[in-house]
Amino acid sequence: MFMHNVSLKDHSSYRIGGLAKHFYEPKTENEFISALAEANEQKLPVFILGGGTNILFSDSGFDGLVLKPAISTIEIHGEIMRVGAGALMKDVVEASIHAGLSGLEWAGGLPGTVGGAIRGNAGAFGGEMKDSVVTVRSLDTKSLKIVERDATDCRFGYRTSVFKEEGVEAVLLVELQLKQGNRETIQSAVNEKINYRNERHPMEYPNVGSIFKNVDVRSMSEKDIQPFAHIIKQDPFPVIPTAYLLSEAGLKGVSFGGAMFSPKHPNFIVNVLDATEADVRALITLGKSAVKEKFGIVLEEEVMYV
Ligand SMILES: Cc1cc2nc3c(=O)[nH]c(=O)nc-3n(C[C@H](O)[C@H](O)[C@H](O)COP(=O)(O)OP(=O)(O)OC[C@H]3O[C@@H](n4cnc5c(N)ncnc54)[C@H](O)[C@@H]3O)c2cc1C
Prior knowledge:
Layout: E1 3-7, E2 19-24, H1 29-41, E3 46-48, E4 55-56, E5 62-67, E6 74-77, E7 80-84, H2 89-98, E8 101-102, H3 114-119, E9 123-124, E10 127-128, E11 133-140, E12 146-150, H4 162-166, E13 169-177, E14 179-180, H5 183-200, E15 215-216, H6 222-225, E16 233-234, E17 238-240, H7 242-248, E18 255-256, E19 259-261, E20 269-271, H8 277-295, E21 304-305
Parallel strand pairs: 2-5, 3-5, 4-21
Antiparallel strand pairs: 1-2, 6-7, 7-13, 8-14, 9-10, 11-12, 11-13, 15-17, 16-17, 18-19, 19-20
Residues 13, 48-55, 69, 85, 110-113, 115-117, 119-120, 122-124, 163, 170-171, 201, 207-209, 304 line the site of flavin-adenine dinucleotide.
């Protein structure tokens, strides 16, 4: 049933990673359940992959089963959209524009799949996945039981959800509530977000978006916040943009091996020339120590390691 020794490079927006020992793309819920049953029987570690736009895969690969749901249906019933976890957010946003449905404009240019966006409650420009979710159908990867949750039950928070916190369920299907709107207005709002991203983000090189989280200032003292007062932004709570700290620490354009802090947006470490996981990790370590030394601030990764 499974494919073997599949390059994870080809499933990562970073174009970095070793081989997955086993790899499978279930197209139906039943295929998903059978694959998990087999993995559980063989005691294989399982990793659920979406678009691979938020992951730094190890150079030594994944010694288990990578399951990439290819359940990517997009159905529209009035103002309700039913989308499979494997659908690309790009296609979901496109479908909403065609149907004249408003609510996903914020996601213009957001890479990755619906499953990944639900797990991390992806958000941008003041919008978040949770704003439109009615229900999520998921699969408990241990018991192999189907779970139906309403939005409250998904326990969405800032870039998190029950799927991330507990790490047990794979998202299968999502029901979104949108609102009838004007197609041209929706299209132009989406274009605006895409253009903003293209201008600010170094899309000319493979990347996984922001490497570090912005710095939440809510637990900092007035005195410690003061030097950053001029650059604090809402995200959706007040933060110091990490790109500013990295830039002030002199890291713009600094490279190691094939990886580089983007001069355009230093919170993106880009893969300029066949970078390895080790190259990126070296720059992550450098970024953390330089910012700690200059500002006394400890950066946390947004990217996840697999
Ligand atoms: C250029 C660029 C810009 C970005 N901008 C933003 C932004 O503005 N806002 C934002 O929030 N993020 C942003 N990101 C990060 C990333 O795109 C999002 O986090 C995205 O939602 C990840 O989706 P994915 O399908 O690629 O998930 P992956 O990277 O494949 O996986 C991420 C996590 O989700 C889990 N996962 C994937 N599918 C499922 C599933 N079906 N069920 C359960 N778990 C699953 C994986 O196991 C993994 O833990 C950006 C990334 C890039 C490259």
